[in-house]
Amino acid sequence: METLDSTIVTTALPAIAHSLGEPTLNLTASITVYLVAMAVFVPTAGWASDRFGARNLFAAAIAVFTLASLLCGLSPSFWALIAARLLQGTAAAFMSPVGRLVVLRETPKQQIINAIGLIVWPGLIGPVIGPPLGGFITTYASWRWIFLINIPLGLLGVFLVLRFVPKHAKGARTRFDAMGFALTAVALATLIHGLSLVAERGGGMMAGAMFVAVGLACGVAAVWHALHTRTPMLDLAAVSIPTFALSTVSAGMVARIAISMTPFLLPLMFQIGFGASPFEAGLMLLVYMAGNLAMKSITTPILRRFGFRDVIRVNGTLCVASLVACALLSPLVTVPVVYGVLFAAGMTRSMHFTSVATLAFADIPEHVRPGASTLATMAQQVAGTLGVAVAALALGLFQTYRAGAQLALGDFQDALFVAAGLMAVAVLWLLRLPRDAGAELSRRS
Q: Helix 251-268 and helix 369-402: axis angle, to 10°?
């Protein structure tokens, strides 16, 4: 449910915007507020599990997510939907981390690898079925059912957790880093809100710039606080390790922002620029996501054969090329070519994410892994959020420059060129990786 609801809304944005009487770009807030809430609260999942117990927290998170889904489906206005999505994203932040903790705690050590392999699949399947499912529901029913279908799933989930997850004693209580949480929350919220204001037409530039400045300042303050606090919400020790820093918080962050722009831009481009229905747009994105899954089975052999540095360098270049190819798509391009470009773009996306995610932990000492895992998860959420925000910003700026009353195909094409440019910067940055980076993991020296 968590992964599905981060992608299923995209193909329905024009329909939701029409229903609520809002411009399509304004409805991007329904995605970003969900992702921001997840990014803010994910680091608190470990503390909350110790404080309230993993079983109780897991069941409560699913229950609140289900209630928020009901509120989303019944939303009578734009702001009601945004508030419900905020609650939904907050609950989602506790679902995957706590669920993963329950699985790892209850699984015998010799079965850990198999267990991790199983719990990864929902995260891969959600983005694949989300866009076409959202498009199908929007085309043949109502966008509100996108959220209402979570209700029976959520009720079943709560029952299964309470029925099968055993009770355990609560963990040792530690002090909650309220200052770190507040600084991180304000930094993310003001930064994303500022970018959305800059994207709006009609004088939002100055106000947006002020919010962005406040967000950056709070971000710097959050980092300073984490470095000078005994038990910070975010443990930044892993950032001192070059492979982790490059693959997660610097070049890797830029690359993830660039690639995260495409699942947002493509379905909207197909609807607004190509005239496709939401279902047709979802099916096109299904091809893109299918490329992700197809690459998974050959990623490990490729990494072992060529090593992380060469794979990241070559595949990064292919990522840039695939983004440029997506930007050149138009209604005049034949369907097989469109599908080929989307499938190739999905494959390069998958290879890049898997490579950098694995490399991030290549040199992490065991005692640093918990903090590194939390930081990597948060970086992933933040990058996904910024990807949507930057894409919306690019669309808004290009529409304003063109002085168009509505978004047009050219705005989406230009935004995809921006994504390609960001990816090119990340690839050049990643060239700083040493030749033997991750050699132990790839069994190369």
A: 50
Show the domain range for 299: 235-445
Question: Could you read off the pLDDT of 12-23 as tens digits, one per residue?
Answer: 888 888 888 888
374 closest CA partner among 255, 238, 221: 238
What integer best gives the mean pLDDT of the chain?
Answer: 83
Residues 223 and 239 in one domain: no
List phi, psi (to 5°) of 271. Answer: -80, -50
pTM: 0.77
Residue corresponding to tokens 């933040």:
382
Last residue of a domain, one of 141, 166, 191: 166
* Long-range CB pairs of 108-114, under 8 A, 24+ apart, other chains included: none
Question: Do 119 and 207 share a structural domain?
Answer: no
- CA-CA distance, 327 to 312, in Å (whole number)? 22
Q: How far apart are CA 205 and CA 401, in angstroms?
A: 13
**What's the average model confidence in pLDDT over 91-102?**
80
Residues 208 and 113 in one domain: no
- Any residues with CB less than 8 A from the CB of 75 and at least 6 apart, and which? 20, 81, 84
**How many separate domains does the chain show?**
3
Indicate the SS3 state at residue 262.
helix
CA dist 217 → 188, 210, 223, 225 (Å): 11, 11, 10, 12
pLDDT at residue 104, as a whole number: 65
**Tens digit of each residue's pLDDT (9 = 90 or more) over 198-230:** 766 555 678 888 888 998 999 899 889 988 888
- Tokens 């794979």, located at residue: 311
